Backbone:
């Protein structure tokens, strides 16, 4: 598509069924402690 | 829901509900914007309809060739068919399922010392004392906390324990003893502890460094940036600045960890709204893992971020993002925590709907063993949830936290960034609105800007 370049192949919808194992890191433990930053967490299942 | 924005010369289309990011030319940007205005619930069928083609011709026929409009419309219909554009928010349908699921405790913030050897002016813990008395956690209380975590962690294998304060190095022997106890217990219970340490570095020495490198999964090093910025807000109790003492120790520690698994973490305030210079100062000092985030203060605090500061802060984030792209392209890149975004392997929807986990998966433990929803709530008696001896005696508090999500907060419903911050910090919400189920708008505005910058950086690096 000459007008549109899509950056990612994964979609959130695809994670609905297989997600939720809960093994991932707690967001606030990493480096914030005041501002909630969840979107940068890594999924443990895809490592 | 679609969010369109332009940043650093890139036209970006974020399909909010799928998380798909499209970098488009100006024609596609205008077409998709017009389509969103026409019908935010477009489907592949409505996009292919003659009415939509006629609408676009009417709206944009003067500016763009019909062939381009047709091409873009076809591409949009194809993306919609793939679930990457005009995607519906279906997650609200199973939010009840997510929220009612049984959660287990998987992370503790151990307040190993309610005492500090610095007197930082913005400290939410009031120089480590948390609205209470000075105290150090005993080994016995710490052991019970780890036992509590193991007993309440269900089938979760990875358990996180942050040694926090105050300043945890003021109670270092207990930290070491608890790590040893944890290593012993994890074998017996089929768990794995990920220990982390948050320190101001004053007491950091070779012995501490060696232990930290052996046992700590992550270490957070507190420093605010340039000397004058740091020393103004992070003095010793005597008033003397802490920069000169601490920087060489942090540099040494970061190098000894191969510049991985640590963050140098600062706070910016109204006194240094040019905080991009502090981020770059860290980079010049050789640090590769950097986090600097806005202070949260009362409106009456002179250093607190005010709404009127936001345009300036946005400029700083934009400036920083551009510089980071240039540095990355020239092999001098570094990580900025708040611009990190994983478009491919990021968290699942369940995680994004659950938020930070405070009050449910994540709890804070005081030196005397009391449990609170997170470190920010410590000392606020209405949030006392129990203690490590008796366990959780106020499950209603956990239920209230579990019930919070992007679907229960008004401010999140129309926000494009809701699946990246997951509803924001509940402690901030309580601080400003006396409800954990609200949002702190100044913080939301900054989060939205950071998400935009983070995505732009991905676009720019994909363009390299």
Residues:
């Amino acid at each position: 598509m000459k007008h549109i370049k899509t950056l990612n192949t994964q979609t959130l919808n695809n994670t609905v069924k297989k997600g939720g194992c809960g093994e991932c890191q707690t967001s606030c433990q990493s480096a914030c402690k005041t501002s909630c930053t969840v979107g940068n967490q890594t999924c443990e299942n895809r490592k | 829901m679609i969010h369109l924005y332009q940043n650093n010369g890139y036209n970006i289309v974020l399909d909010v509900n799928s998380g798909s990011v499209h970098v488009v030319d100006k024609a596609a940007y205008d077409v998709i914007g017009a389509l969103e205005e026409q019908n935010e619930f477009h489907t592949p069928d409505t996009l292919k309809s003659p009415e939509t083609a006629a609408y676009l011709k009417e709206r944009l026929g003067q500016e763009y060739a019909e062939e381009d409009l047709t091409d873009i419309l076809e591409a949009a219909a194809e993306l919609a068919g793939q679930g990457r554009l005009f995607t519906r928010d279906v997650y609200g349908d199973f939010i009840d399922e997510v929220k009612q699921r049984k959660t287990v405790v998987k992370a503790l913030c151990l307040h190993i010392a309610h005492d500090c050897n610095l007197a930082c002016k913005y400290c939410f813990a009031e120089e480590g004392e948390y609205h209470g008395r000075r105290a150090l956690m005993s080994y016995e209380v710490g052991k019970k906390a780890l036992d509590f975590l193991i007993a309440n962690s269900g089938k979760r294998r990875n358990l996180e324990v942050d040694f926090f304060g105050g300043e945890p190095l003021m109670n270092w022997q207990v930290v070491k003893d608890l790590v040893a106890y944890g290593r012993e217990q994890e074998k017996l219970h089929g768990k794995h502890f990920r220990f982390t340490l948050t320190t101001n570095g004053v007491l950091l020495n070779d012995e501490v460094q060696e232990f930290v490198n052996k046992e700590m999964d992550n270490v957070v090093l507190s420093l605010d940036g340039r000397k004058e910025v740091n020393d103004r807000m992070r003095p010793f109790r005597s008033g003397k600045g802490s920069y000169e003492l601490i920087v060489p120790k942090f540099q040494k520690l970061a190098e000894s960890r191969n510049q991985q698994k640590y963050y140098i973490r600062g706070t910016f305030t109204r006194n240094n709204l040019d905080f991009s210079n502090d981020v770059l100062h860290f980079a010049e000092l050789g640090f590769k893992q950097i986090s600097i985030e806005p202070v949260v203060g009362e409106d009456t605090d002179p250093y607190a971020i005010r709404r009127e500061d936001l345009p300036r802060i946005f400029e700083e984030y934009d400036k920083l993002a551009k510089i980071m792209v240039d540095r990355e392209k020239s092999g001098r890149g570094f990580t900025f925590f708040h611009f990190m975004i994983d478009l491919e392997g990021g968290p699942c929807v369940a995680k994004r709907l659950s938020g930070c986990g405070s009050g449910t998966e994540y709890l804070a433990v005081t030196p005397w063993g009391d449990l609170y929803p997170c470190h920010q709530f410590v000392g606020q008696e209405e949030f006392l949830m129990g203690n490590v001896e008796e366990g959780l005696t106020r499950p209603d508090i956990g239920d209230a936290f579990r019930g919070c999500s992007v679907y229960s907060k008004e401010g999140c419903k129309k926000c494009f960034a809701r699946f990246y911050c997951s509803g924001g910090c509940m402690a901030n919400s309580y601080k400003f609105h006396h409800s954990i189920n609200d949002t702190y708008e100044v913080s939301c505005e900054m989060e939205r800007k950071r998400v935009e910058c983070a995505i732009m950086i991905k676009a720019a690096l994909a363009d390299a």
